[in-house]
Amino acid sequence: MITIVLGAQWGDEGKGKLTDILCAEASLCARAQGGNNAGHTIVADGQTYDFHILPSGLVNPKCLNLIGSGCVVHVPSFFKELEDLQKKGLDTTDRIHLSDRAHIVFDLHLLIDGLQEGELTEAAEQEQLNNGQVVVAKKSTGGAIGTTKKGIGPAYSAKHARSGVRIHQIFNKDEFDKRLRVLARGAQKRYGSAIEGYDVEEEIARFDTYREQLPAFVVDAVPLMASAQKNNTNILVEGA
What we know:
- The chain is 40% helix and 18% strand.
- It has helices at residues 15-22, 75-87, 107-130, 152-160, 173-191, 200-213, 221-230; strands spanning 2-5, 28-34, 40-44, 47-51, 64-73, 96-99, 103-104, 218-219, 235-238.
- Strands 1, 2, 5, 6, 7, 8 and 9 form a 7-stranded parallel sheet that branches. The chain has a two-stranded antiparallel sheet with strand order 3-4.
- Helix 3 (107-130) packs across helix 4 and helix 5 (173-191) packs antiparallel against helix 6 (200-213).
């Protein structure tokens, strides 16, 4: 059986609370899309856990968890969230998998996210000035979207422009380094001096470390999900 929890609005519909209830009976809990901008808190056995990119099925010791192909993943945040859960006594050993097809959120995307929000705010303020209005740049007046500036939008933009980088490409260093440098050059052309503080070689060096850590988590999610469906596993799919 497959249960899918989706929201039809713009977020904050209470999906997390419903997922928390359903994951107690699930054998496989999969995040379908989104990144670590989402989040909710679970209190289990008197302990409080914060979830962002990781599926909340981790609180169920009998549940396998998957970050699916439609997600975008900021790898440093993935490891930090995992570490925080383990420090609170939650055993995640062999219970969290990451699809090799998921796209990566780079620190570059976080920077671009902030710059894009700033541009929207400036454009709205200028339009109001041109119209003789009092400057109040906000979402309702066409200002900044109000993102969490976690790089989710720019990462999905790169994915759909076919310039993004998938998790499996981390394991081919030459290809990975080349693709990230291309992304950085494109951002430099678009934003110029606004991204001078970003060092692409520094980010590449960090992924040299992640390349050694990630194999324990990365899987081909297609046969994993196909097998679970064939065996009539109780699957819970989390929408962002």
